[in-house]
Amino acid sequence: MDYVGRHAFMPSFRWRELGVHWHAYRERGSVRNPAVPSIDRVRRLDTAPLAALYTPDEVAEWIEAQTRDLGERRTVRAIAEREWVEIGDTDDLNHLYSENVLIAARGDSIYTDIYSESENIQLFLEVVSAHECPGH
Ligand SMILES: [Zn+2]
After folding, report:
1. CA of 109 to the centre of ligand 1 (A)
2. Is-contact 130 19, C-beta < 8 A?
3. pLDDT by residue (tens digit) across 19-37?
4. pTM for this model (two decimals)
């Protein structure tokens, strides 16, 4: 999907000016034992990411794919609004997708939680500069 394909609004191009990409990480835990962000950004970046993502759309698509793969109704905290959003239908997913594109387009990292009755999953999309990661 191209950069302007799915959204009618115009995201920032700051991410391009900054020359950034994103490293994607996922931590799973239970509700009783949440996957707390036990390691900080620097230590996380020392580990191999699940994926390297190069555009805000790739970031949003990766988060959406993670969310869809869970296969049941979930609650997601959108970090930009600090609110919990029950997800499960296409409108919800499109809303989250757009929010995530806007955040990433500013050149920011995205941390988000996905909860169900039994499981807590945290997604970390760490923005990295070409200086921090010349390898991608
Ligand atoms: Zn990288």
Report:
1. 13
2. yes
3. 999 999 998 865 555 555 5
4. 0.79
